[in-house]
Design brief:
The protein starts with a strand and ends with a helix. It is built from six helices and seven strands; from the N terminus they run E-E-H-E-H-E-H-E-H-E-H-E-H. The protein has a five-stranded parallel beta sheet, with helices on both faces. Strands 1-2 form a two-stranded parallel ribbon. It is of the alpha/beta class.
Length: 163
């Protein structure tokens, strides 16, 4: 029986194909976008999803590579989820320890939205870049907030998987 993985890839000897996002490239694109909003030498933070989620690891590594290559200082890399995959409050501690931070990039829009809520409460206006292109994040961008998301294309992933 042919087995096709859609959206998330894993190593499996019986897999027929993977149709989805190159998560490392997605992370690099998010890093480039944040890099266009801050200057070399400025400080940023990376907030990533689960440590056992290969897509999140690949995104984080792509972000890190680009930011380091253009001379932006990554002052912290922190997991933004607890053991139940709920966002945890890391932004407050990051801002307290690194008050000169100029931007945040996250491995998911869910983490980006959580960061934006905290930043808004603390009246801090810095760019926050997410990944996924979920509706709530797009709505926030359309409202004129200083942030962005790198969208995937779930329609085409589904279409090509069925095709």
């Amino acid at each position: 029986i042919p087995v096709i993985f859609a959206s998330r890839d894993i190593e499996w000897e019986h897999k027929t194909s993977y149709i989805g996002t190159d998560h490392y490239a997605l992370g690099k694109t998010a890093g480039k976008l944040l890099g266009s909003m801050v200057y070399p030498g400025e400080q940023v933070a990376i907030i990533y999803g689960g440590q056992d989620d290969q897509a999140m690891i690949d995104r984080k590594n792509g972000m890190k590579k680009v930011l380091e290559d253009i001379g932006i200082e990554i002052v912290t890399e922190q997991s933004g989820y607890d053991q139940f995959v709920n966002p945890k409050p890391v932004i407050g501690a990051i801002l307290q320890k690194h008050p000169d931070i100029q931007g945040i990039v996250t491995t998911s829009d869910r983490l980006a939205l959580y960061a934006l809520k905290t930043l808004e409460k603390k009246q801090v206006n810095i760019p926050v870049i997410g990944t996924d292109g979920i509706t709530d994040m797009v709505d926030t961008i359309e409202a004129g907030k200083k942030n962005a998301t790198i969208a995937q294309n779930p329609y085409d992933i589904g279409y090509l998987s069925v095709d």
